[in-house]
Amino acid sequence: MTTDFFKDFSEKTKENFAPIMKFNELMSASIQDLFHAQMSATQRYSEMTMEQVKAASEIRDMESLQNFFQKQIGTFEALNEQVMSDLKAMADAGIKFRQDLEAIMNPAEEEQAEKKAPAKAAPKPSAKASA
User: Fold this and answer.
1) CA triplet 58, 64, 65: central angle to 5 degrees?
2) What is the rounded CA–CA span in Å between residue 59 and residue 67?
3) Which pLDDT does position 2 carry in this prediction?
4) CA distances for 79 relative to 70, 92, 130, angstroms
5) Residue 61 DSSP one-character state
6) What local confidence, expressed as pLDDT, does residue 66 receive?
7) Which of 6, 50, 54, 118 has its CA 20 to 30 A from that of 98?
8) Is-contact 97 26, C-beta < 8 A?
9) 106 and 25 in contact (C-beta within 8 Å)?
10) How does pLDDT run across 88-103, given as a tens digit for each residue?
11) Distance between CA atoms of 33 and 39, rounded to whole angstroms?
């Protein structure tokens, strides 16, 4: 009897803490993903900056100055594309995090959606079989 009580208590505890454990795993994975994304972005921006410093150090006369400024248009376009790409990646990560968090917080809704999907698919084959 006591063994059953502790076994039941242990199972209930695991069941009650499962969402918290999933949340912690989600937070850890999200932070790691964001950290890697930030490190990659920092590396790319540092490389762009070093290229610009190198290009600026090669300015020797008026002609090289004009060439430098003409190349700046392409550089700013590349920088703009990179920033937009990084922002989109961050937004996508935020959306994925929200969806995963909603799945953890509302597991009953997810189970109901899974039950409804097969239920809708099941009548179609039976309708064909009876026809």
Assistant:
1) 95
2) 9
3) 73
4) 15, 20, 62
5) S
6) 92
7) 118
8) yes
9) no
10) 999 999 999 999 999 9
11) 10
Q: At 112, list the tokens.
A: 């109901």
Nearest to 95 by CA among 36, 30, 25, 37: 30
* Whether 48 contacts 79, CB under 8 Å: yes
Total-model pTM: 0.65
A 10 A CB-CB count for 34 gives 15
Q: How confident is the model at residue 127 (pLDDT cuts 50, 70, 90)?
A: very low
pLDDT the model gives residue 110: 59
Output 2 or 26, whichever has higher pLDDT. Answer: 26
Q: Give yes or no for a contact between 19 and 107, defined as CB atoms under 8 angstroms apart.
A: yes
> What is the rounded distance in angstroms from the CA atom of residue 118 to the CA atom of residue 55?
61
Distance CA 63, CA 67 (A): 6
Q: Which among 24, 20, 34 is positioned nearest to 86, based on CA atoms?
A: 34
Sign of CA dihedral 83, 86, 90, 95: positive
